[in-house]
Write a structure and sequence with these properties.
globular; 44% helix; alpha+beta
């Protein structure tokens, strides 16, 4: 009897083991229940049946960062995600300006004139035979720059990729690259910049060749909606076989500035290169004339008034052109393009572009901004 009493009083492992087993079973059961509940909640949230509390929504990506990622990683046009960039859409024709352009062109009946202007932010526009295909001269270098930067965005071209000078691409006329020995290599960024800065024809031919040649480039123009734009000959193309229209030139620039083409980074490169053009005797000078006031150097005088023009001209003697982006003092932007075909080296052709631009200037001039009311300090004691 003593031995039996002693065994009952000695603590054993039975009770702790049973308690541990119960805890394990309870933990497994709670895990299964919780997992099932979370799965159902996630499915319901995806369907929109269950709202997600605001404190569960991630805010790690700032809106501007998300836009930058989307701009380069999505096929959707940037303009569809940010209406502040404007769009290439004609909404309200400025009939008085269109008529004025028609009257100016009629004073020189032997000149063929094409003109187009669009304010990207509100759709106001004017036109004169905007879709007539005329010799592009060096103005075709703007859409070539656009396609070059598209290749950069696609990863098929690098901005510092060397391009080799060959006999095929050497072009006369404007520029200095033709004077370099055959076999000289130029980085793409220098080629693209010189094509715009000093209108280097050899630089242009280097890019035409690198982009796959004339036929491949024309297919790219068509894909962009530039139906009147075509490269049919190496530059300088003094015969005027390369063509474009005023609407096409304006459209090419607008595609970039509205975000419909190119990433944000390449858009900046486009604007940077276009800003290097040294010829400012057509749209900039005509705009300055139309705005009135002191007539100094066009770029500096326009800057003082709050305007900036990023433009590219063309000149092959029988045809002249100019097209550019015009930044206005109120932050709005317009695109404008002018083409004139006439007798060889006829000064009336360039003067016509200046007159058309001068007539356009008043409609681009924004209304004076009203200063916000400033509250006066109270005189009450």
């Amino acid at each position: 009897m003593a031995t039996s009493r002693s065994s009952r009083q000695t603590p054993g492992w039975g009770r702790p083991l049973r308690l541990l087993l119960r805890l394990v079973l309870m933990g497994v059961g709670l895990g299964v229940i919780t997992g099932s509940a979370l799965k159902l909640a996630g499915t319901g949230a995806q369907r929109g049946d269950w709202p997600i509390p605001s404190w569960l929504v991630s805010t790690d990506i700032a809106p501007q960062d998300e836009e930058a990622v989307t701009a380069t990683g999505s096929s959707a046009p940037l303009s569809s995600r940010n209406d502040n960039l404007g769009r290439f859409e004609t909404r309200n024709e400025l009939t008085a300006l269109s008529q004025r352009w028609k009257e100016l062109a009629a004073t020189q009946a032997d000149l063929k004139v094409s003109a187009f202007m669009l304010v990207l932010d509100d759709g106001r526009y004017a036109q004169l035979e905007p879709d007539t295909a005329l010799p592009a001269a060096s103005s075709i270098k703007t859409p070539i720059l656009l396609v070059t930067l598209e290749e950069l965005d696609a990863g098929r071209l690098r901005w510092n990729e060397p391009l080799t000078l060959t006999k095929t691409v050497v072009g006369g006329g404007a520029g200095w690259m033709a004077s370099k020995p055959i076999g000289t290599r130029f980085p793409t960024h220098e080629v693209a910049t010189e094509m715009i800065r000093v209108s280097d024809n050899t630089a242009t031919n280097l890019l035409i060749d690198r982009l796959g040649g004339k036929e491949a480039l024309n297919l790219r123009f068509n894909a962009l909606g530039l139906s009147a734009t075509a490269v049919n000959n190496w530059l300088p193309d003094l015969g005027g076989t390369n063509t474009t229209s005023a609407r096409d030139l304006a459209h090419a620039i607008a595609l970039v500035d509205t975000g419909e083409a190119l990433s944000i980074r390449s858009r900046d490169l486009f604007r940077q290169v276009m800003g290097t053009s040294i010829t400012n005797t057509l749209i900039p000078r005509g705009l300055m004339r139309g705005l009135g006031g002191q007539q100094g150097k066009p770029d500096q005088s326009l800057m003082i008034k709050g305007y900036r023009v990023l433009n590219k001209t063309g000149d092959i003697g029988i045809a002249y052109a100019d097209a550019g982006l015009i930044e206005l003092p109120d932050g709005n932007r317009a695109v404008a393009a002018f083409l004139v075909k006439g007798p060889f080296n006829d000064p009336r052709s360039t003067e016509m572009i200046r007159k058309l631009t001068a007539a356009m200037a008043p409609v681009l001039k924004p209304k004076p901004a009203v200063s916000p009311a400033v509250s006066q300090p109270s005189t009450n004691q």
